[in-house]
Please model this.
Amino acid sequence: MKIRYTLIFAGLGTLVCSAFLACSRIQTQCPEPEPQLPVFGEDVVRGELLVRFDEGVAALLEESGLTKSGPSNVLTACEIPSVEEVLAIVGNYSIERVFPLDVRREELSRREGLHLWYRVRFDEDAPMEQVYMELSRLGEVSSVNCNRRLKKAYSGKSVPFHIAKAAAASVAAGNWNDELFPYQWHLVNRGDLGESKFSAGADVNVEQAWELSSGDPSIIVAVLDEGVDYTHPDLKDAMWVNEDEIWRSREDNDGNGYAGDVYGYNFSLGTPIISTDDVNDSGHGCHVAGVIAATNNNGLGISSIAGGDGSNPGVRIMSCQIFSGVKGGTVLDEVRAIKYAADNGATVLQCSWGYTSGAANAYDWQPMYSSDEAWMADNALERKALDYFIHNAGSPDGVVEGGIAVFAGGNESAPAAGYPGAYGDFVSVAATAADWTPAVYTNYGPGTTISAPGGDQDYYWNYGEGSERGTLGCVLSTLPLTVSPSGYGYMEGTSMACPHVSGVVALGLSYAARLHRHFKASEIIDLLYSSATPVEQYWNIDEPKYYYKYVTDLGTNYRNSMDLRRYAGGMGSGQVNASAFLRAIEGSGVEMTFPNVTVAPGSSVKLALRTYFDNLSGASVKVDDGSIAEASIVSGKLVVKGLAEGQSSAVISADGKSHRFVISVRSNLSEGGWL
Model:
C-alpha cells in the first residue's frame, strides 16, 4: 500500500513540476484549483464546519484566549478580516478549538498540526454550502471538512439472555467457571450447539492461547462506541482508571483537557459521566467491551478473550463514548476520542462504526466512499486523528510503538468494506458464522483484511420451532441492566466480529509484555494476518448458503441464498487465530529497554514495572542527583517526581536485573507560549 501511494505521489509531483515550469516560461501564474463541494447528504451536521487555519490565524485565535475547547471556550468574533468577511454570510457564529489543551502532549499536538483545527458553528438554516466554498477559497484556510454523522456497524437490537430459553451445550475449558461460557461458541466452538450449522473449531481459537496469556492490565483498549457500564459486575474490574483524576471533579486535575475523566469520557455529551441509560441505547458499547475483557473465571456471566484468569487481571477498557442514544456519533466526537485514547495510554482502538460501503446496493443504502482518495479528500481531519493514533500511541520503549485501529467492515452485504476501516493502515473485519461461512450481512472484498465470528441470526433461526430470533448462532456478551435484566444478551454484526480481533490483538500484546518483547504496530498487524486461518477451506463452494431473510415491515420471512463463490478470497487473510498469533509473537520483536522519563517540576509520572521485570520482590531505584528528581516504587509502579529543571541518571533493579535510565525534568512551556 505504501509503495503504491509513493508512486502515485511521485507521479503527481512530476506533473506539478512540469505545470509550474510551463507557467514560468510564459510568465503567467497558474490559477488555484477551484475547491470541490462535497455531497451534503443527511449525514452532514448542519450549521457547523471543521476548519484548518494556517499558523498565523491560529496564533491570533490563541492570543484571544482560545486555547481550550468546550462551550466556555469559544470566540464569537475572530477579528481576522478575510474570515470575518466570509462568516458575515451567516450572521452570528462561534469558533472553538477541536482538541482541548493537554499540557502533557501539547508539544506533540502542535508538531502534528492538530492545534490548527477549529469548529466553526452557525445557524443551521444558514447557507452552509456557500460558507464551505468561500472558506475553502481563503489563503488562510488549508482544509474545510463537514462534521458527518457516523453509522453504527451492527444489525438490529440486542436480545436479552434467558437461561431457560438458551440452547444446551457442553463446552468447558479447564477450570473456567463462568456460568455462560458454554454458550459462547465464538470463543470455543465444540460443534454441539446446533447440528451441522456449528462446526467444531470455528472460533477464535483462544483456549490454547490462554495457556500462554490471559491478558495484562498494562494493555488498554479504547472502546469508541456507546458507553461502557463501569458498574457492571463482569466489567467493573476491567475498566481503565485514570488515577490522576478525581471522580466527577469540575477541575482538570491531570491537565489532559478533560475534567473528571476517571473511566474515560462521554464525547457525545461533553461530560465525564459515561452513560448507558438513554432510552435509545442498545448496550452495544458494553457488548463489545465484554467480548474483549469481561472478567474471566469469576463464577458469573461470560468469559472474554483477554479478561485475565481469576488470579491475574486482564486488559483494561477505556470507555470513549461517541454515541449516546440518538445524540453524538459525529466525526467531531470521533476525532476527540481518538486523540484522547492515544494521549492516555490506549494502544488498541476498537471501532464498530464507519460509513456505508461505496459498493452497497443503492436501492437499500446510501453508498459513501469507494476509494482511499475519495475518503481522504473528504475527511482530512478524520484521517489526521487516526494517523495520530497509529503513529503516536504506545511507546518506543514499551510493548508496542504506535497504535492498532480495528474497524468493523460493515453490514451491507457489499463487495467492499466501508471506510475508514478500508484504508490500508487499519484493520478491517468481516464477519463469519459458526461454521466458517461468511455471515449473510457481512461486507467482503477490497478493504477487508481479516475475519472473525460475528453471529448470523437469519442463518440460525429455527422458524416455527419456538426459538427466539437473534439468539442461536449470535454473539453472547455483557449488556447494561437497563437493556437486559440479566446483564447479558445476544447481538450480531461485523461490529461483533470487530471486538474479537481487538481482543486477540490485546491478548497478543499482553503476551509480548510477559515476554518483555517490543514491536512496532505494523509488525503486530503483519503477525495477526499471517497467523489467521483461511476460511474457504471449510466451505462447500459449489453449493449456496441458504438462510431465511426476515422482512420487518411485512412480519414474514422468505428463503434466500448466497453464492459462496463471490466471497472466495474476499474475507481478508482468514479468521483470526489467537493461539497461532501468540505463537508467532514468541519468536519476533526485540527485547524491551527501560524507558527514559520526562516530568515537569512539581509533577509526578508513574510507570508500570511488570512490563520490564518478571518479579518485583526487592525492587529498588536510585537517582544519582536527588536535587533534580526523586523516585520510589509504589504498588508495582515506578513513581518519579520532578524537583528542579535538569537531567539525572537513575538505576532501577529487580529480579536480578538492572536498568539505567535518564530522568529529564523540564517545564512544558514552549517558545510559542502555549501555556
User: Anything to note?
Assistant: Residues 8 and 358 are 22 Å apart (CA to CA). The domain at 595-665 is CATH 2.60.40.1080 (Immunoglobulin-like). The two ends are 40 Å apart (CA to CA).
